[in-house]
Write a structure and sequence with these properties.
Length: about 120
């Protein structure tokens, strides 16, 4: 699975990228909204983990644009934030999943495993 990690906390994003690669996923980091949007215009991703608080554009807007870029093909959007889900506005219905930081990697692994199964079934 090809995963885009969008987080302005570079060490956290890089660690997540490393952990995903150990699970046989391909992952790419984008540290700004613009980097994420540029990456999505040049590469096909199966999933994106999007921090909701980015310095240049809200994560919700990044998610809307990534969803539009994906069109009708299967694509999983996971919101990541240091805030509790109840404290996040504008994300409801936009994301498939929500993970609070620090990210529970077992929960992320389950989300991605289910997405891999859906992708395989769609092919």
């Amino acid at each position: 699975m090809n995963v885009l990690i969008v987080d302005d906390n570079e060490p956290a994003a890089d660690l997540l990228q490393e952990l995903l690669s150990l699970q046989d996923h391909t992952a790419r980091c984008a540290y700004t909204a613009q980097q994420a949007l540029d990456a999505a215009s040049n590469e096909t991703f199966d999933a994106a983990l999007v921090d909701l608080t980015l310095p240049d554009l809200p994560g919700t807007e990044v998610a809307r644009r990534l969803r539009a870029e994906a069109g009708k093909r299967p694509f999983v959007l996971v919101a990541i934030s240091g805030f509790a889900a109840t404290d996040v506005t504008g994300a409801a219905g936009l994301f498939d999943h929500y993970l609070q930081k620090p990210i529970d990697f077992d929960a992320l692994d389950r989300i991605l495993a289910a997405a891999v199964a859906r992708l395989a079934a769609a092919r």
